[in-house]
Design brief:
single chain; 400 residues; alpha/beta; seven-stranded mixed sheet; elongated; binds MU-OXO-diiron
């Protein structure tokens, strides 16, 4: 049966949530599920704004049928073509062949890559700042390339001041009845997953996110309707400020993340000792992750939050331990910047991974890799205690 929620006046949420999917994009664990948001505008013309993943297509079409109440569907606005939002476009056009698709040139090309249409769909191609009236509502279209794909645009309802923000301002996590962020105690229930979503999905594209933020700054925004997670109608500046920070790769907190790769526990021992020395010196905000236990998306997210990173790895096959190498590749792919990094390396006969970690991270902008490095063979000995202390001191120098 249909299950839609009124969002504002004549605007409805018509998407759904998947709590069965293990890996979003076949990469990211989503223990709290994921929502695929779509919206219906009940104006003089009827408008669907983005579609949904096929996992929630049943309720999506039931919602449209109910809200249309036997009227035709006039418009489909496509802000983003990734199949988590676009998979049901083909079926939508089959059901409503007279619908006019509102999209940009790049989307129009992608439509034909993903779908085989028996008859050419009606397409109204829009460009930056074009407007379109649906009756009492007029939309403006703003291009947002690479937030998160090249064809992405956002749509702004000039009358109700609603921004349909595509992937921007999304979060991992199903919608559990409460559709608005202000109903959630967002900071404690959802911020970590919002950060993990941002850092892993669009974290690489900070410059493009900043470009979108600067365009959005000229708009009066009363509501943000993203394609994943809750709708924002209060305290919008809080979330925009987070996006400003994340997109500039500015740490949110003076904090230490220790990521370690340990085969027999000796590198873990070094990481533990450094954590304890930091704690003894008064550092309160320390998180530790075994890279073979914690999915890298969680560590990437924590690195976006924290100012300082300790990377402790054993040498493996004359290189960096495989799961640590994966994390470091991911960090560089996500364009991490403006961090202080301390390196600990282990190796029973040739500890070489520290140098390789240093080289890999050197491609990142404004990364301060401490000269002071801990190198040991097999296991730590008591005579290294002073060196560990100095390492902790060096980390703390600009920790604040
Ligand atoms: Fe949620 Fe880039 O798709």
């Amino acid at each position: 049966m249909f299950c839609y929620t009124k969002v504002k006046n004549d605007l409805y949420f018509i998407g759904g949530s998947d709590r069965r999917l293990a890996l979003f994009e076949n990469v990211y664990p989503i223990p709290n599920g994921i929502s695929y948001n779509s919206y219906f505008l009940d104006d003089e013309k009827t408008v669907v704004i983005d579609t949904v993943d096929k996992s929630v297509s049943k309720v999506f079409f039931e919602n449209i049928t109910k809200l249309l109440n036997k009227r035709p569907l006039d418009y489909l606005v496509i802000n983003h073509m990734e199949p988590d939002h676009a998979a049901t476009i083909g079926e939508l056009i089959n059901r409503y062949p007279d619908v006019t698709i509102v999209c940009n040139q790049k989307t129009s090309a992608m439509l034909k890559q993903y779908f085989d249409f028996e008859t050419e769909p009606k397409i109204n191609c829009v460009k930056e700042n074009d407007t379109l009236s649906f009756g009492t509502h007029t939309f403006t279209f703003i291009m947002a390339p690479m937030v998160h794909w090249p064809e992405v645009m956002v749509s702004y309802d000039c009358n109700d001041k609603v921004l349909f923000s595509a992937d921007a301002f999304g979060t991992f996590g199903a919608i559990n009845g409460n559709i608005f962020a202000d109903e959630l105690n967002f900071d404690s229930t959802s911020l970590a997953e919002a950060r993990r979503y941002y850092s892993n999905i669009v974290g690489k594209y900070g410059v493009q996110v900043q470009s979108l933020l600067s365009k959005a700054a000229s708009l009066e925004i009363d509501m943000i309707c993203p394609l994943h997670g809750p709708v924002w109608r209060e305290n919008i500046d809080y979330y925009i400020e987070k996006y400003k920070k994340w997109s500039c790769y500015e740490p949110e907190e003076n904090a230490v993340v220790i990521a370690y790769a340990s085969v027999y526990g000796n590198t873990e021992n070094a990481a533990d000792i450094v954590a304890c020395r930091l704690a003894l010196k008064g550092v309160h905000n320390i998180k530790m992750f075994d890279v073979s236990v914690t999915h890298p998306s969680y560590i990437i997210s924590e690195v976006f939050r924290a100012s300082h990173i300790v990377i402790a790895s054993t040498t493996y096959n004359n290189g960096i331990f495989v799961n640590m190498e994966n994390l470091i590749n991911d960090l560089t792919a996500h364009n991490i910047q403006n961090r202080t990094v301390g390196i600990i390396e282990n190796g029973s006969w040739a500890p070489v991974c520290g140098k390789q970690i240093r080289e890999k991270l050197s491609v990142c902008k404004n990364i301060n890799i401490l000269e002071k490095q801990i190198t040991f063979k097999s296991s730590l000995k008591e005579e290294m205690s002073t060196s560990l202390d100095e390492f902790a001191d060096a980390l703390m120098e600009n920790l604040g």
